[in-house]
Amino acid sequence: MALIPRSFGNSVFDPLFGSSIFDPFENLTVSLFDRAFPSFDKDVSAVANTRVDWLETPEAHIFKADLPGMKKEEIKIQVADDRVLSISGERNKEKVDQKDNFRRSERSFGKFYRQFKLPSNAKTQEISARVENGVLTVTVPKTEESKKKSEVRTVEITG
Q1: What predicted TM-score, i.e. pTM, was given to this entire model?
Q2: Among its keywords, does the record have Oxidoreductase (predicted)?
Q3: Domain presence at residue 20
């Protein structure tokens, strides 16, 4: 006997009483948009959730992206002539046997694509990249001129 009708979402099976019980936290994160377009969030979340940090040091611009479970062969890094750095890739959906069912599927999959306009002090021919423990690190060295410390002078105000 179900306490809550099926139309209110999937219920949790209670092994002690042999009935379905209501899980008040089950749909807490599901919006009306997600209910209307159930596959949209999975397809777009890989793009939207690929977070990248851009750190500038005196020697280089360093980009770090969390890409858990991805191999270097699944990631593509390109630099265009106009100093645009592109990081892209695709995380494929895990295949499951027909006899198995997901109880919950929250990991994102799909293509991701991020672009960054590099400043004029970037040495685009010397870019390096590595993946370690699910973190992609792209290092873009700076030109020698930009590494020099700039002099600070005080401007006198007249009038």
Answers
A1: 0.62
A2: no
A3: no
User: Structurally, how many domains does the chain consist of?
Assistant: 1
Can you give the pLDDT of all 159 residues of the chain as single tens digits? 445 444 444 444 445 555 445 555 555 555 555 566 555 545 555 555 688 999 999 999 999 999 988 889 999 999 998 899 999 998 877 777 778 777 777 777 788 899 999 999 999 999 999 999 999 999 999 998 766 666 788 898 987
Q: What is residue 144's three-state secondary structure?
A: helix
Q: Which residues contact 58 (CB under 8 A, 6 or more apart)?
A: 142, 147
* Domain around 129: 25-94+109-148
Buried b / exposed e along 19-56 (16+ C-beta atoms within 10 A): ebeeeeeeeeeeeeeeeeeeeeebeebbeeebebeeee
